[in-house]
Amino acid sequence: RRLIMSYGYSVRVIKLNSTANSKSMGVQLGRVCIEHDIPVSNLSNRLGVTRQTVYNWFAGIHEPNRTQKTAIHEVLLSLLAE
């Protein structure tokens, strides 16, 4: 997989995401955000969490809880529709 610079994403973040467990919702979220150039700050503001929390989800370090997963789904639908 070719590493490219995406909106606000460093090569390090992209690499961590690409090697993390793809079954994790947080990792899947990261792949969608990187692919569609969705800024972490936009996502974190809408979800009421820190940017570091979102980066930890992307890297597979932490997994969003059930409530956050529901909110993520709604926010992603909204962001992808913009």
- The total beta strand count reads 0
Question: Strand percentage, roughly?
Answer: under 5%
Query: What Rg is obtained from the alpha carbons, in whole angstroms?
Result: 12 Å
Q: In sequence order, what are the helices and strands, one letter per element?
A: HHHHH
Q: What class do helices, strands and sheet pairing give?
A: mainly alpha
Poorly predicted runs are 1-6
Question: Overall 3D geometry?
Answer: globular
What is the residue-averaged pLDDT? 88
- Main beta-sheet annotation: none
Distance between the termini: 27 Å
Put simply, the count of helices is 5
Percent range of helical residues: 55-70%
Describe the structure using short key phrases.
single chain, 82 residues, mainly alpha, 5 helices, globular, disordered N terminus
Question: What does this entry look like structurally?
Answer:
- With 82 residues, the chain is mainly alpha-helical.
- It contains 5 helices and no strands.
- Helix 3 crosses helix 4 (51-59).
- The chain starts with 10 loop residues before the first helix and ends with a helix.
- Mean pLDDT is 88; it is low at 1-6.
Element layout with pairings:
Layout (H helix, E strand, L loop, with lengths): L10 H9 L5 H11 L4 H8 L3 H9 L6 H16 L1
Helix pairs in contact: 2-4, 3-4
Q: Quick recap of the structure?
A:
The chain has 82 residues and is mainly alpha-helical. It has helices at residues 11-19, 25-35, 40-47, 51-59, 66-81.
